[in-house]
Amino acid sequence: MGLETEKADVQLFMDDDSYSRHSGADYADPEKFADSGGDRDPNGLNSHLKVGFEDVIAEPESAHSLDKVWICSHALFEISKYVIYKFLTLFLAIPLAFVAGILFATLSCLHIWFVMPFVKTCLMVLPSMQTIWKSVTDVIIAPLCASAGRSFSSVSLRLSHD
After folding, report:
1. Cα 9 from Cα 77, distance rounded (Å)
2. Would you state the pLDDT for residue 12?
3. What is the DSSP letter of 31?
């Protein structure tokens, strides 16, 4: 009885077309991925890159250029920043995204299939190694250090100023 009520509540807020039955992205409709003015940096990873003209060029009250120069330099700054960014992303975004995808896939694979099994193996073997190491130190190193300590304990130094 509770399940039917829950399904009815869900259907009130979502229609069947917008509710995806799978957890992955729906790549069939590329229009959904086109930017419609949405935030492409929702986590604020690159918030430090929001640089405006006033952040780079600022004139104090005592030193103002001509208004036309200020307006033209502002426009040139914004246009060049926009055009150069679009040009660079046109040629670099897809290859760099491909390289980053390969890099992160490789790192993930290495971490999942090599690093973590090695760490788990070491953690399994460590208690045995700890017992063996304690035995080695008790049998070999501790008597050696005790003998050296007894030998050097009888040594005395006298400093004389001649």
Report:
1. 52
2. 46
3. G
- Compute the distance between CA of residue 118 and CA of residue 123 in angstroms, rounded to an integer: 9
Identify the pLDDT of residue 37.
63
Residue 115 · residue 106 · CB < 8 Å: no
Query: Which of 85, 102, 103 minimizes the C-alpha distance to 93?
Result: 85
User: First-to-last CA distance in the chain?
Assistant: 104
Q: Is residue 77 within 8 Å of 61, Cβ to Cβ?
A: no
Contact 74, 53 (CB under 8 A): yes
Tokens (6 digits) for 98: 């491909």
101-122 per-position pLDDT tens digit: 999 999 999 999 999 999 999 8
For 145, residues 6+ apart whose C-beta sits below 8 A from its C-beta are: none
Residues 6+ apart with CB under 8 A from 78: 53
Q: Say whether 159 sits in a helix, a strand or coil.
A: coil
Kindly report whether the global pTM for this prediction surpasses the value 0.70. Answer: no
| Tens digits of residue pLDDT in 48-77 | 778 888 888 888 888 888 889 889 998 999
Alpha carbons 48 and 50: distance in angstroms, whole number: 6
